[in-house]
Amino acid sequence: MQEDFHYYATYCAAYLAGFSHEESMDICFSAQFVDLCSKTFLQKIKAPLKAATTQLKLEMMDARTDIIGLQDITRIWASFHFLPADLYVDEADMFSAFFPQEKGLYRKKKRHPKKYMNKFRLICGPNGDLIVKTVENAKGKSLQHIGIAMHVMADTWAHRYFAGTPSYVINNVSREFYEYVETDEGAKERLIKFKHSPSAPDDVENGIYSNSLGQGSENTIMNLGHGRAGHFPDYSFARYRYMPAWGEYREIIKDNPGDYVKAFTQMVYALRYLSGSSESFEKDRYDDSVMERYGDRINGIIRKRQLIASDDWKAFGQELSGKNIDDFDLSRYEEEYILAGKNEKDDTFFGRFITAAISQKGMITDEICRSGNRLAGFSRETGIPER
Amino acid sequence: MNTKSDIKTRKYRNNIEVSGRATMILGAWFVAKFILSILLGAESLTKLFGFTGLEPVLYWNLCIALLVVLITLIFLLYIYIGRSAVKYARGQKKNRFFLIITAIFAIMNIWGIPWYFTMDYYKELSLSTRVASAFVDISSVFISFDMIFSAYALSKLKGRDEYEAESCYPYRKT
Q: From the CB of residue A108, how many other CB atoms can be counted at a distance below 10 Å?
């Protein structure tokens, strides 16, 4: 997902869940900051590098792809952007996690090597056990921790079917990538043209989108996450059909508008739990009352064919709260952190974010390791208590 | 959308397309191998044609020209097979004549593989070179038969018309 959802939509969800304007601002800033808290930024403010929640393109170009480098990459991306749906997928019934209609239908003989299954089990998806643990881990913690949890939750919907580890055999997509476009004669399929041109904006009207460079090497950074599909899965209006490399010739129809509505309502439900309004958080539950009141408005924003919907979400949020939502400014809390004394840094905004990020990364890395999967390495820090 | 039949259809279409692309690469390799072997001295046109040096220049030029035409024809046949396979896999072509040429190429390759080890012409090459060449030809045979089998299996899965309707044309109404 992108700034329109992580920042402005998260603000709306937080406000609807009962948080105040100021609390919602802290939550949405933290949610968006997950996409910007790189090692480069942390070095700049002299913060611990292990708190990195993302990697910039330049950092990824320099990243090692040996086992240590791959573990570092996987730790970051699987913990914050591609939360695994099911770490214990049974190989005999491996596709039922993503194709429920196949459950029990095609019992497969175990023929995939463990190395492959480890990557398969990192495929992202919503309503897994890890999202419950992520939300539980944020309960009673700082607003920054809540923001991180909301970012992770939102991304499980947009980034589903891709894995947060570089892998050609998991994350590659075929040439047959079709978008559903509404025309005067009804919905039609249009073949998407992908080309590697990072500087050119995506052409929504003509279906030309940028993607990562095609490389056949298994562990190249170009095969991380949804890079082979470019930025397309992050567009809320996108409805598309494609064949993922891991699917063994199965096709997926992805309905982003429907998924984004679920992401939003699930965020409101989770935020109600985190604010104390509700007693428990369970997977596959949503706050449908939001759609009853604001369904038309939210659907209108999500389904509009535009590269970024920040203005629409911002207007909606400002109408909800009656307050002005400041645009995201990365430098807002920099000075506070830099000028704080050594013992005071943890109490600053970025300090609390850093503590939360380390906690989230440690928890997910530990879960992946406990499942027998060494792709994310192991973590010494799990569930760090916050001051 | 993801029935066993759908999955197999996509798999065989993909096989045909990949085999088609591989055939085009093999065609390019065939030309490159011949040119390189002449340039690097491994082959000699004089030896190839059995020239004694007493033939007129016109005869020499005619033989070279014929050789170029023959190599070009074979290369174009490879390209025709490859492109036809790709188009057939994408549902853009119905005619399966290219499979007949593929079968002929495969049979000729099978027939020619033992020559690497029995024919005097090849005995001058090192054993490793002959084994490597044989492996390339075996791969070519495998690609050809994979293409033929996949096309056959595809036609068996469903009627050709039904396959056509479900192939990936752009702007198809959903």
A: 13
